[in-house]
Amino acid sequence: MACWIDVVKDWQTLIAGVLAIVAAFIGGGFVWLQTQTVDRREQARLERQHKAALAVLPLAISAFVEYAQQCAVGLLPVLRSAVDEVVPVAARVAFVPPVLDSAVIPQLRDAIENAPEGFSDRIAALIAGGQVLASNLRSLPDKTSPSTLVLKANIEEYIARAGIIFARGAALFEYARGKSGVVPPANPSEDDVRAAINVMSFEFVNEERIYDIAFRLLSGVQ
Predict the structure, then answer these.
(1) Could you tell me the CA-to-CA distances from 167 to 8, 40, 196, 215 in Å, in that order?
(2) What is the per-residue burial (b if ≥16 Cβ within 10 Å, else e) of 113-144?
(3) How large is the angle between the packed helices 190-199 and 207-219, nearest 10 degrees?
(4) For 22-33, what is each residue's pLDDT tens digit?
(5) For residue range 56-114, what is the model confidence (pLDDT) as tens digits?
(6) Tens-digit pLDDT profile for residues 163-220
């Protein structure tokens, strides 16, 4: 009799162990299913965020391109005011720097976080160029002292920078709108820059100087 009791006890221990293993598998399965559900929901959320960021990207790029054109248009009277290569104080004071819509930078920043790496680099370059130009233009009305020289070449450089921004933005439109799967080159070509400056519809005093400055900027030669 004692022998049978021992056998039953052994089987009970074995059964309990098997049940514990089965319970662990079942519990693990539930955890795995819950994890998969959370992962799918997070993936869906990220996809919606990605689509939302890219949906407004063409509008943000368009605003940046328009900003570049406004800068160039505003600089034209300053450029034409130059006498013997020097910009008069009155022209500096009269200049009012255009203001980029405050919503554009956050929209582009969101696009950088959600766009493919190569394309996000292009957006970052667009923003960086705009920040440099904005800094240049904000300082122009402050240079009101007659002893502070602002040269015609300085204004031509600012217009050249605006042309580069215009060209960069224009190159991003097709990809941003989903009409092209090819990420634009890191820098616009010389032809693109010429076209951008021409599209801004100016009759420059000396267009070739503007082009040359733009090409030097693109090549890294300051």
Answers:
(1) 85, 40, 5, 12
(2) ebbeeebbebbebbbebbeebbebbeebeeee
(3) 140
(4) 555 565 555 555
(5) 788 888 898 999 999 999 998 999 899 999 999 888 888 999 998 888 888 888 877 77
(6) 999 999 988 887 777 777 778 888 888 888 888 888 876 655 567 889 899 999 988 7
